[in-house]
Amino acid sequence: MASEKSYLDFIVDQIEDAGGITYRNMFGEYVVYSDGKLFGLVCNNKLFIKPTEAGRAFIKDVVEAPPYTGAKACFLIGEKIEDRQWISQLVRITLKELPEPKPKKKKVRKK
User: Is 110 part of any domain?
Assistant: First the structure.
């Protein structure tokens, strides 16, 4: 089941205090970034956040699940998604621990 755009819009609205939030559609699901750094996925109308030690300490009672078959487990965010301050803080904490994105390689056209 693909995620609904209206659910993604709700998520983006909830975490607007965590930087410049952008997203990309991938196979009916969404990859979510803050200031160019990938931190989460929206799959099957559920929010998954990349796991970090600081995020684990902040959440305390962590629920982990893979966002799709074959994926590594991520933090599955349930009812706390309703708490805008809490989810924005979790995203900010997570971003501090994630590595900077690698620069994109320039595509070379073959003639």
Answer: no
pTM value > 0.85 = yes
Please tell me the total count of domains within the chain.
Answer: 1
Q: What is the CATH classification number for the domain harbouring 36?
A: 3.30.1460.30
- Contact assessment for residue 41 and residue 33, using Cβ atoms and an 8 Å cutoff: no
**Which DSSP symbol is given to 44?**
T
| Cα–Cα dist 18/73, whole Å | 22
103 in any annotated domain? no
Assess if residue 72 is contained within a domain: yes
Instruction: Write the pLDDT tens digit of every residue in 8-54.
Output: 999 999 997 888 899 999 888 999 999 889 999 999 999 999 999 99
DSSP 8-state code for residue 11:
H
Q: Is residue 104 part of a domain?
A: no
SS (H, E, C) 72-108: CCEEEECHHHHCHHHHHHHHHHHHHHCCCCCCCCCCC
